[in-house]
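Report of the visiting student (M.T.), summer placement. My assignment was to run the structure pipeline on a short list of targets and document each run. The first record concerns Integral membrane protein.
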Amino acid sequence: MDSRDVVGVTLIAGLVIFMIGAVRWRLSYEHPDETSLPLMHTDKWRRAWIHIWMLVAAFVTPAGVAGIATLPGAGAFAAMAATVYAIGSAAWVVSLAFRLTIVPWAAERTATTGQIPETFPPFDAWAESLFVIQMAASYGAYALLGAAVLAGDLAPTWVGWLGVGWGVIFLVGFALTRSAGPFSPPFWAHTYTGLVGVVLLATAG
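After the run finished, the structure tokens were exported:
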């Protein structure tokens, strides 16, 4: 297995690992805190399963994106994509750590006392801002990765145009709609990279 295969498998694995956890997500977790936190307490092991898989993917996919920058013909755009994606993933890792520690604590307190801890909402807003950084960085990295394909010979041209278009359209859409729109589900941050992984394997040697 050459380096191109390794990168392709890593990118695909990042998407698969993320989805193993994400498929158990419930939309009711996104309801107002008064109703979602008690449910999160009831589902604490389900949520732990979801977020642990997401956390693993937050390391695997960035490793794959960094690997793209090492392939022959990758160029500067690929290195920039890897940097931007890594910054977003770092923010996401911190946000996931918050979801695995502070959120369960707040959920237990809410379920026990019927009151949301006063310190929780501002910290929750802070964690949400880290999620925003991650999604914006992912879409920006998509556009840069697409540009890297167009500037070099990493993959077919259509993959490059798809990356540029996907990144720009989703970044604008996310900026306009934020968490209320179709561009916010975090699996999007692993989808184009997973597709690139498939293409790298399909066009290898």
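Residues 3-202 form one domain. The chain has a mean pLDDT of 95. I thank the supervising group for their guidance throughout the placement.
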